[in-house]
Amino acid sequence: MLALGALLLSFAAWEYAKVAARDAYDKLLIGGAVQIAENVYVQGGVVALDPPAAAFSTLSAYDLVFYRVTDPRGVVVAGYDDLAKGVGGAALHRGVVLRDGTYQGQPVRIAALGKQLEDAGGGWAEIVLAQTMRAREALAWDLTTKAVALIAVMSLLGLLATALSLGLAFSPLTRLEGEIAGRRPDDLRPIQVSPPREVRALVGAIDGFMRRLEERIVMMQRFIADAAHQIRTPLAAIDAEAELLSDELDDPARMDPLRNRIADVGRLASQLLDHAMVLHRMETARLQPVELNALAKSVLAQTVPLSLEREVSITFVPAPGEVTIAGDPISLREAIANLIHNAVVHGARARLAVEVGGDQAHAVVTVGDDGPGIPDGERERLCAPFQRGEGSHGSGLGLAIAAEVARAHGGGIRFEMREGLFCVSLVLAVAPAREA
């Protein structure tokens, strides 16, 4: 709007400057014509002119000046014979006539008037004075330049005043923005900054929304906890009933498919709830120091069954010193447990190894087994939820949970073959971005 206003004002300044320059020089031109008319006289019955040097010197300072004086008979007694013939006509008897014209290929401004000569029988002499227009244009440009400079300065001051006014007017909103942006996702308290009167209703609506959102989150957490309990309890009861039923059958092995399916359903329900928990904690859990050597060793001890159908050599290789990162211990425990469970169930034939390592920027927990591993083309797909490998009867959530936990901790999942073992590594940033 300021630019459009400045453009319109500049155009108006140019038009005004042209009018002002034209009026100023027209007055000089009229004065010069009047002075010439005053110096026209009759001597011995002949019309003559005594040229006014002062008038000509004023008019010719920047421009060329032409004039013509014609006696009542139409004879040119002074000046240029071809200058503006037939200009004015009878209007010259009533005063000065001004008009634009062209003379010798140049635009000129012409002033013409008539003078009645009593000594020549009352006839009328015609006086024509013309001036080129360079001085007018120079004056118009000078006035316009100064006006445009003033407009530019005022526009700049207007912009600065607008910016300052907006900064002062919106500073309370900036504080509100900082208050909201600096909060953790689980901080749903009412906004503490006192809002300006104009947005008080908006802030009240945001506070009300956050209160309702907190109530819904609490309800969801309670539902997840209740669902975990309510689902696991009947599954455990069904498994117990199946075991009792198998004791009454002649061939107890006939119940193994049912018991395996019950175990799969229990594992799926548990992982679904764990997946929901991990997704929720990735944004809301407060990070705290986690020592990975102790965590990985504890998870390994709790995850590997006390008895397996096959003989498996289990190795744990801790890092030489402490490996401490800023993380969520519950999510990390779940991720490592899923990697170990996948290795035990789907991979390890005779060897299972868990190793902790890393450098200053990243910590790495590696789970390796001597199983067939995952083909290169399948690795990225299996990191998505509910994607299963060929021949697998798992839930398709183990690698997905591990990958999401690794991403939440500024890292990722890495696959490699090392010393005859297929290794899946959980790469974690020592200080994730949201903690830094």
Automatic annotation (TrEMBL):
Q: Please state the Enzyme Commission number of this protein.
A: 2.7.13.3
Q: Keyword set for this entry?
A: ATP-binding, Kinase, Membrane, Nucleotide-binding, Phosphoprotein, Transferase, Transmembrane, Transmembrane helix
Its predominant location is membrane
Q: Name one Pfam family in it.
A: HATPase_c
Catalytic class of the enzyme: transferase
- Please report the name of this protein according to its UniProt entry: histidine kinase
Q: Which GO terms describe its cellular component?
A: plasma membrane
State the organism's lineage. Answer: Bacteria, Pseudomonadati, Pseudomonadota, Alphaproteobacteria, Hyphomicrobiales
Please report the stretch or stretches of sequence annotated as the Histidine kinase domain. 226-432
